[in-house]
Amino acid sequence: MRILQITDTHLYGDPAARHYDRIDTGAALEGLLGALGAIGPVDAVVHTGDASEDGTEESYRRLHAILDPVAERLGAPLVVTMGNHDVSAAYAAVRGPGARGTEVQDRVHELAGGGRVVVLDSSRPGAGYGELTGEQLDWLREVLAEPAAGGTVLAIHHPPLVAATPLLRSLDLEPLEELAEVLAGSDVRIVLAGHYHHEMSGSIGGVPVHVAPGVTNVVDPLGAGESERALALSGASLVELGEGAPRVVTSVLPSAGDTLGDVTVPVYLFGPAEVRAIAEAAGR
User: Fold this and answer.
1) What is the pLDDT of residues 29-60, one digit of tens each?
2) Which long-range contacts (CB under 8 A, 24 or more apart) does 247-254 make?
3) Rounded to an integer, what distance in angstroms lies between the CA atom of residue 187 and that of residue 78?
4) pTM, to two decimals
5) 2-282: in CATH 3.60.21.10
């Protein structure tokens, strides 16, 4: 399988809206897609969440208006995962209910080559952190009980990895031990995630995990210390699954939606007090 992964587009229903009063998120997405060049056909285009910033139905229509033609040109289905800024009910109103007939967007996407992408909706209304219910884990266990001929990719917004920054550690995913138990020994080849807005790798239950950088901005995980900062960059990853370990390559480019036009100026810089306030408001 070859998969183009993008994440954290944070689109608005109103095209004039700007993320942090600066980033034109629609232009950032379109510019990144235009800059990727001829990556060749893929088996799926996977968006790992925070597709929308305002959770409106119109923002999801904009998302599909931009991405559906790209996926069609690449000969692949578009797979969209819900993130903490998304509203599953609004997405369901645009694209239909999830696999269990509810607004929760858990889905199975069968691919032409015999593989599949399984989507877990880790969003919880009003929360920045991620959570999987017992019902979701039972559903995943049932799905994975029958392996796919070409293997499985699991897509989830909140990474099943310990975050690199204090703020993101307050916005993590639970329960990790239960998810690891479900994944261990399954046909899942890789877990794809977003949320952290920077590239990261690890594993859970013996399965590799790849976190792709954000489209709307890229977080600096090492240089900010106890603070949190993001730069006017956009990224995407190409994931290739064959014999042996997954092969993942990532591009990070200046944001085409940066109205300031200066990548040296952070999109935001939260000091320790601001980090604590955000964690208390949106964290676990």
Assistant:
1) 999 999 998 788 999 999 999 999 999 999 99
2) 248/201, 248/210, 250/199, 250/212, 250/213, 251/35, 251/36, 252/199, 252/213, 252/218, 253/32, 253/35
3) 21
4) 0.98
5) yes
